[in-house]
Amino acid sequence: MRTILVLNGPNLGRLGSREPDVYGSADLDDLRLFLIRSAPEGVEIDLRQTDDEAELIHWLHAAVDQRAPVILNPAAFTHYSYALRDAASLVTKSGLPLVEVHISNPHARETFRHTSVVSAIATGVIAGFGFDSYRLALDYVASQP
Ligand code: DQA
Q: What residue numbers bound the domain in which 121 lies?
């Protein structure tokens, strides 16, 4: 069984009630179920969310140690957290895929969302497709040896 980490940053625990016009009305449990159903056989989804930058960084360190590929929605940390970027960079520099995902399309929103400090070190970026952003990332990550 191969485990793929699906890590979510601040305020994504409020999915379902948070700005449903932007993020939809499904919550994190719906996302977990959707990804479990979308995952090919032999792939386990370990989906987590935290509002805590340090916790997210520790999870990325653990991904390196456990050799686990990562799908990461850094949420607002995307736009300013160099600490998160450095931790994410440890993942890709260790040869593991890390796909940055966003439910919305940050480039179609406020100017501060147009900058990602994570994208340059990510394996790839998928944004603007709702929960399908995660599914597309899963398709890629699961297809990697
Ligand atoms: C987000 C986009 C970010 O700008 C925002 O801060 C989020 C969610 C998305 O999934 O669309 O919290 O990462």
A: 2-143
Does residue 104 have its Cβ closer than 6 Å to ligand 1? yes
Is the beta carbon of 69 within 6 A of some atom in ligand 1? no
| pLDDT for the residue numbered 18 | 87
Q: Output the CA torsion sign for 51, 85, 104, 4.
A: negative
Count of structural domains, the chain:
1
Per-residue pLDDT, 126? 98
Split at pLDDT 50, 70, 90, the class of 1 is confident
The alpha carbon of 142 and the centre of ligand 1 are apart by a number of angstroms equal to 24
Is residue 76 within 6 Å of ligand 1 at its C-beta?
yes
The DSSP letter of residue 44 is E
